[in-house]
Design goal:
By secondary structure, this protein is α/β, with parallel strands linked by helices. It is built from ten helices and six strands. A six-stranded parallel β-sheet has the order 1-2-3-4-5-6. Helix 2 (22-29) runs antiparallel to helix 3 (33-45), helix 7 (110-122) runs parallel beside helix 8 and helix 9 (165-176) packs parallel to helix 10 (194-206). The longest helix is centred in the N-terminal third of the chain and has 13 residues, at 33-45.
Length: 211
């Protein structure tokens, strides 16, 4: 009996790639040009930058393949200057594939939030952004709120433990009155008082997408 639609070598390699871990994928990608074409895309589909993982240079080179990116604190801290950190943010978001960006617990301050905000204003693929447990503060929350007024793809935003306070909550509330794509907003443990809670409550009266 003969197969009427036999798998080609690329399809076979793709099936194999789906079963391999990061280290094995990297080794397979080095075998030949054909193998590189088959094993590089899954290698960069989900990337977590750590001390012993892929380099930032490698990530920037293959950023068009990355859909899910996480950056651990140890790597982010090495980018000691704010301009360098902002450059990373713009570079990884300025592609047509990234859907998830995880920057939790990276000591990001309001300048970093401003960089994220600028990137979100033009990015059209990111659906999940996690910046929880960072020192974003009220100013950072206000910057992100401005981006939410125009961004039409982000559906999930984690802002827990970011010290946004009442003014940050109020800024986000204004954005929620016009944003129609965000479905999940995590504001856990942000020192939000009565004024911030009242503003959020008013926003929820008109917002129909948050669940």
């Amino acid at each position: 009996m003969f197969w009427t639609h036999p798998l080609d070598l690329h399809e076979i390699r793709s099936i194999i790639a789906s079963k391999l871990g990061h280290k094995d994928l990297a080794n397979c990608a080095r075998v030949s040009k054909d193998w590189n074409n088959s094993f590089t895309p899954p290698l960069y589909n989900t990337v977590v930058l750590s001390e012993h993982g892929l380099s930032m240079e490698s990530v920037e080179k293959n950023k068009h393949l990355i859909r899910h990116l996480g950056i651990q604190r140890s790597v982010y801290k090495k980018l000691s200057s704010t301009p360098a950190r902002d450059k990373v943010v713009f570079n990884v978001m300025a592609n047509s594939a990234l859907t998830t960006l995880d920057l939790r617990s990276n000591s990001i301050r309001d300048n970093g939030a401003q960089a994220l905000s600028e990137a979100l204003k033009t990015n059209s693929t990111l659906t999940t952004l996690n910046v929880a447990d960072n020192s974003i503060g009220p100013n950072g929350a206000q910057a992100l709120a401005e981006a939410l007024k125009t961004n039409s793809t982000l559906t999930t935003l984690y802002l827990g433990k970011c010290s946004i306070g009442d003014s940050g909550a109020q800024a986000l509330s204004e954005a929620l009155k016009t944003n129609s794509t965000l479905t999940t907003l995590d504001l856990l443990d942000n020192s939000i008082g009565d004024n911030g809670a009242q503003a959020l409550s008013e926003a929820l009266k008109t917002n129909s997408t948050l669940t």
